[in-house]
Amino acid sequence: MKECFKNNWKEHKKVHKVSEKEATQYPPDIYPNFAYTGPLRPYPQSSRRLVPMNIARPDYAFHPNVIKILTDEEIEGLKVACKLAREVMDEAAACIAPGISTDEIDRVVHEACIERDCYPSPLGYYKFPKSCCTSVNEVICHGIPDTRPLVDGDIVNVDITVFHGGFHGDLNETFFVGNVDEAGKKLVRVTYESLMEAIKIGRCSQRAFFLNN
């Protein structure tokens, strides 16, 4: 075996040299404006592989792998849902203050949804128990409202989604509770500015991941 390997060493090295060369030759950069953090680049993907129909599937396997293009009428319906969500957010914002619990914010959101003939989308979604998400301080997102009172210096993000007329209107906003320190204010300000910059480049034919760049 060793003798065979030794006799064919030159041919063996030729194969390795070809492989090493191919590994460093990237295809044309399909994301030329993306700020890569290293030398790795994406290669083309193969097509989706099939699973025989006799094999049991989880529910997500049946979801269409496409984004629906809405008609003008549907876009108007979506706008209505988003407008109602904004109204609900304004109701939530009005009650935020030191001493108010996030459970109380959830009550306000829930009742504001009902008053507008909307279903609070988070309620029951994968067993989520509340009508909105409230994320305080270091909680990144999707916090569950509870009875802890907000205290002076907290920041709280309220994430609201309403379902109306067949569409979900979704938005979130971060609020100062009383007197917030400079670090907290900077976090909220920079996050907001980043959102505005992302919105500026959002347009037809733009790849969504560029918004994260």
Strand content: 5-15%
- Overall helicity: 25-40%
- The structure class reads alpha+beta
As residue ranges, the low-confidence spans are 18-23
Broad CATH class of the domain at 72-178: Alpha Beta
Cα separation of the termini: 53 Å
State the total count of DSSP E strands.
4
Helix tally equals 5
Mean pLDDT: 85
Question: Which series of helices and strands comes N to C?
Answer: HHHHEEEEH
Per CATH, the architecture of the domain at 72-178 is Alpha-Beta Complex
Give the CATH topology of the domain at 72-178: Creatine Amidinohydrolase
CATH superfamily of the domain at 72-178: Creatinase/methionine aminopeptidase superfamily
From the spread of the alpha carbons, the general shape counts as extended
Largest sheet: 4 strands, antiparallel
Q: What's the Cα radius of gyration?
A: 26 Å
What is this structure's SSE topology?
Elements: H1 2-7, H2 9-24, H3 72-95, H4 102-115, E1 119-120, E2 133-136, E3 155-164, E4 167-176, H5 182-201
Antiparallel strand pairs: 1-3, 2-3, 3-4
